[in-house]
Amino acid sequence: MSNPVPFDDRDGYIWFDGKIVPWREATIHVLNHGLHYGSCVFEGERVYHGKVFKLNEHTERLHRSANLLGFALPFSVEALNRATEEIVQKQNIVDGYVRPVAWRGSEQMAILTTHSRIHVAIACWTWPAYYTDEAKRKGAKLTIEKHWKRPAPDTAPTASKAAGLYMIGTITKNQAHAGGFQEALMTDWRGYIAETTSSNFFLVIGGELHTPIPDCFLDGITRRTVMELARKRGIKVVERHITLDELSTAQEAFMTGTAAEVTPVGSIDALTFTVGPVTTALMDDYAKLVAE
Ligand code: PMP
Fold first, then answer.
1. Among candidates 146, 143, 135, 243, which has minimal Cα distance to 185?
2. How close is the Cα of 231 to the center of ligand 1, in Å?
3. Is 215 helix (H, G, I), strand (E, B) or coil?
4. Rounded Cα gap, residues 120 and 100, in angstroms
5. Shared fold status for 13-126 and 133-290
6. Using the 8-state DSSP alphabet, how is residue 152 labeled?
7. Distant-in-sequence, close-in-space partners of 271: CB < 8 Å, separation ≥ 6
8. What CA–CA distance (Å, rounded) separates 182 from 18?
9. Could you tell me the distance, in angstroms and rounded to a whole number, from the CA of residue 114 to the centre of ligand 1?
10. Which atom of ligand 1 is nearest to the CA of 222?
11. Which residues line ligand 1 (CB under 6 A)?
């Protein structure tokens, strides 16, 4: 996605540590624990018709993500929900994206963080779809990441939406992009299918929905929403460990995420999938739900 206007040079406002400040003034010092040591967690939320979808779930996850990194946010879930609504309104966002972020500050430049202060900011902007209409119609082109794995849950705080975990996704996504793919499917440290660089992954096998157990990657809010929508339609949902060999047994595949919504997968390397009835039905159900 091309983005001609850099994110540090825009008009508007950002909620920053309890205050609304002009966009260009929402800055931090280069000596910052979040930047140097990855003490940073964030959220990605979507605004539909002026309202943040599943706001409370996202804010609760931000709190949990911080706790998993050993810090507590200095604002309650309720306060951050209100702050989000305030900045979305101030920015006049009708359909857009919200990025809350929390990090350890500049008090200490060492691993130990006994005196670190926690900072929180919430930015939002008008945003088009993450994948193009063509990707949504024909299905996205994926490749299997062969080198990088989702780490074991005792080697990284894998349940946290921690900025540090995205270094793996960024290397992987850049490689996939350079190879002409829109996304990469990642396996975990055991070799099971995990997720893509920024979305959860589903297969349709014989009319049933199969998705990996989120025991070492993010259990997405969209993932849980889509599983609920499927169950409402009477579609059986199976959470289990899935191997790469099983990809060839699936008729349909799709990705879910706040940004991706429900995006069909057209191919994974040489394997092709149809944008079939289950994916289409869940895309429609999801679109209806967010429009409510
Ligand atoms: N996995 C990763 C690595 C992600 O970045 C995201 C997007 N937040 C997801 C899964 C999907 O999560 P959600 O549905 O909560 O947006």
1. 143
2. 21
3. coil
4. 7
5. no
6. P
7. 247, 248
8. 37
9. 30
10. 14
11. 44, 169, 195, 198-200, 217-218, 220-223, 256-258
Active-site amino acid positions:
161
Q: Which CATH architecture has domain 133-290?
A: Alpha-Beta Barrel (3.20)
User: Given this model, what pLDDT does residue 4 score?
Assistant: 77
Q: 282: which 2 tokens? A: 């869940």
Domain ranges of the chain: 13-126, 133-290
- What SS3 string covers 91-145? CCCCCEEEEEEEEECCCCCCCCCCCCCEEEEEEEEECCCCCCHHHHHHCEEEEEC
**Is residue 220 within 8 Å of 256, Cβ to Cβ?**
yes
Residue nearest to atom 3 of ligand 1 (CA): 198
Closest CA to 249 of 210, 216, 205: 205
What architecture (CATH level 2) is domain 13-126?
2-Layer Sandwich (3.30)
Mean per-residue pLDDT pooled into runs of 10, the chain (292 residues) = 81 98 98 97 97 98 98 98 98 97 96 96 87 78 97 97 97 98 98 98 98 98 98 98 98 97 97 96 96 88
- State in Å: Cα 222 to ligand 1 middle: 8
Question: What is the DSSP track for 54-74?
Answer: THHHHHHHHHHHHHHTT---S
Centroid of ligand 1 to alpha carbon of 225 (angstroms): 12
Helix residue ranges per DSSP H, the chain: 33-37, 55-68, 77-90, 133-138, 166-178, 221-232, 277-291
- Residue to mutate, 198, 223, 262, 263, ligand 1, most ligand atoms under 8 Å from C-beta: 198
**Helix, strand and coil in the chain, % to nearest 5:** 30, 30, 40
Q: What size, in residues, is the chain? A: 292
